[in-house]
Prior knowledge:
The complex is a heterodimer of chains A (164) and B (115). Chain A has 164 residues and is α+β, with helices and mostly antiparallel strands.
Amino acid sequence: MRRADIARLNELLREPMRSFVREARARIALLVNASGQVLAQHGFVGRYHVMNVAALAAATNASAHALAEITGAGRWQYMHHAGRRWQLFLAPFVTPAETLILVAIFDEHSTLGLVELFFQKLAAQVRALPEFGEALPAVNPASFEQELEAGLDRALAPDQPGGG
Amino acid sequence: MSDAVASTLDRLSHVPGVRSALIVDAEAGVPVASELGMGASATAVAALTASLFRRTDEAVRQAALGGLGSFQLETEEGHLVVAGRRELIVVVVADRDAQLGLIRLEVDRAVEALQ
């Protein structure tokens, strides 16, 4: 995905992500593609954390996808980890353009059911965007790192007027 | 599904006027078991009723009324009866002209059976 595309997608995804966080009562949310490019985020304050979580989400998706294929499960739906205070929800969804992965962290103010419910709504909203309606060209390896950086820069940029 | 959950759900769903019946994990807000009528989504009903139950429970505790046992919503087309204690919540969606007394009795029995 090119730098200019990332910038536009960050803007397009800002409101759906904000709605997801509000309705699911999540504390932190991150939307990345299968390569680990950050498309949208809410609640993170540090670039380092976003980068780590994005990379881990992409890796988890790749591992879970491979495991599902090996075991004949077909596809995996979501991963949920319930800690003492914080809970983690990680789930992929497929668009014609590419597979995206949502990572959400929530506490006792939400539930797995709520997060899953509004994840489905977010996925439907993203799939309806024309930008995700067609298959994307393959990522150029030479510019891959730059594109990753571009996603981070945009996702962590202060909100524009009219944003949040 | 355990025998207790299966038989409880079966009894609830056979009460006249009941469209859908669900047993919901209160903590996670996900369905444990369900018998659904047309157009009902177990995931959505479970998530939203569990959230509503927890918040209403919090509200009645803040109002010094003890813990929440059950609540009932009247809608344009019917009723939503929700009851529970601890881990499990019983949810029944019923027609507008259903016998609510009978439904509430069965819901109370279901809550007892699931303890």
